[in-house]
Design goal:
Two copies of one chain form a homodimer.
Chain A lengths: L2 H12 L11 E3 L4 E9 L11 H19 L2 E11 L3 H17 L3 E9 L4 E9 L16 E4 L5 H10 L6 H7 L5 H10 L5 E4 L4 H12 L2 E4 L11 H6 L6 E5 L1 H6 L4 E7 L4 E3 L2 E3 L9
Parallel strand pairs in A: 3-4, 8-11
Antiparallel strand pairs in A: 1-2, 2-5, 3-5, 6-9, 6-10, 7-9, 8-10, 11-12
């Protein structure tokens, strides 16, 4: 069993009142603000062996922008906390990567803090606005919904594998270091859909998205492997490789028809579990605590 | 020179556009939300030698609530990220401390994440609402303003000293572990003042507050040592001891008269620097990076 789930159960039992243990983003409905926080730790989420401070900052920010995009909101503000053995050179490169990335997405840095520590950890809080937008929840999948996706699954995991094998600067390594985000299509989904929908990014792999949506929505999800957009032919990486940040969406047939560019990879059925090519697949996603 | 200031200068030079390098809180004026983030690291900000997981959680939350209170906002939502060698017992105690504290202040936990790491780090984001409230900025002090304070300066630092000397369970140790917050008086200041004012808590010591306000507002601050509320007679701890979270406020004479319970400790003058009993005092506050 996955330790993180156990811990979340303990937390949920301990709290008198809370409804936070669901989606990656919390929604402040009074303000129409989505908010997400994330902590990235050296040698757990990234390594200086493979990436420069500039690249680490860029990716840390991209990961968090993606969380907001798949919530259905528009990213607006970011706060960054940095702990580590900080020096001038690191700070300069890191904030250059940060600056270039938030500028591209028109996001404003509004706060943060710096702390001394042995290892680098990056803590990010990001806020997005969802005025006049339909927001997603992984509880929203329903029978007969379409399972859709965009991007290329497994490319980032392939890049990490290549890095670990000592390769340099190929297509997949570039993809791993600087994953593309899906700003336009997620924005279309949030503004054009009329029915509730579920959307996640494949930060922990495609299968993890399907599994989370299936269990939170209490539905069966059937995917056809051949329909999954991908550039590699490695089932393990395509299904379980993380850090792609490709949107995975369950939405109504009507809504699906409205959104150009979405690729249908499966359907939602009554029942439980995730089926790939009619075979039930078990949870093997990235497990933080095992 | 203080390293943190150097780093902030580099960051500010690197960013194309940002206005974040001032107060502890960022203000989202469109939503009337104040937001603050903070990262607490094992053996830098707290130690398991002196405090239980319950106490560490409680204090981490109190510190952040105080940031919102002295901004002038009302704390509403909190997000917690936890990294460390987490186990069931730790999680249970930590979240119990968290739960009891946020319940007391009517704050809702809306998100967070758990990550494996060698040392514990706690990353907190807290949001407060400032609709119909006058918010503070350390740039707001003006000539002829009153310098006011409440609480007891130096008690927390005395408690930490006692802990390090092997003492147990005295008044100051309790104060250090569970510092009182000043919810009512900060709320009065935010709702009753008409003019701009500067308010900080003494998380890094009374002198640090005076120094920050003096340099950001470009004014001289004169304090009379005897007027400072305190329960100990140790000038070093009273002026430079941190973790008290006592509000230090510079406000207009008119506004000062409206707020019952504020103690006048000095005045704001034209000029530069912080003077205690007419003697200029240099910066010796807690320096994270030295």
């Amino acid at each position: 069993m996955n330790k993180e789930f156990e811990f979340l159960k303990i937390i949920s039992d301990t709290l008198t009142s809370s409804s936070y243990l669901g989606d990656d983003c919390a929604y402040l409905d009074e303000y129409k603000l989505a908010i997400s926080k994330d902590c990235l730790i050296e040698n757990v989420h990234f390594s200086f062996n493979f990436m420069t401070p500039y690249e680490i900052a860029r990716k840390a920010v991209l990961v968090n922008i993606s969380d907001i995009l798949v919530s259905g909101a528009k990213p607006k503000y970011i706060l960054i906390g940095l702990s580590g053995k900080l020096d001038e050179k690191f700070i300069k490169e890191f904030y250059q990567g940060l600056n270039d990335t938030i500028e591209k997405y028109n996001i404003k840095l509004i706060g943060g803090d710096l702390t001394k520590a042995d290892k680098l950890s990056i803590s990010i809080t990001i806020l997005g606005d969802y005025k006049n937008r339909n927001i997603s929840s992984r509880k929203n999948a329903k029978k007969d919904y379409i399972v859709a996706a965009v991007g290329e699954f497994g490319s980032s995991a392939k890049g990490l594998e290549d890095l670990k094998n000592g390769l340099k600067d190929n297509y997949f390594i570039e993809y791993h270091k600087n994953p593309p985000l899906f700003e336009k299509i997620t924005s279309k989904i949030a503004t054009l859909t009329k029915n509730p929908y579920a959307m996640m990014d494949s930060s922990d792999g495609l299968f993890d998205c399907l599994y989370q949506i299936s269990s939170k929505s209490n539905v069966r999800i059937d995917v056809n492997y051949d329909l999954i957009p991908k550039k590699i032919d490695n089932k393990n990486l395509v299904l379980f490789g993380g850090e792609d940040y490709c949107p995975v969406i369950c939405l109504s047939v009507d809504d699906f028809k409205k959104i150009k560019g979405l690729i249908k990879i499966g359907v939602v059925k009554e029942g439980k579990g995730v089926y790939i090519d009619n075979k039930k697949v078990d949870y093997r996603g990235f497990k933080h605590f095992e």
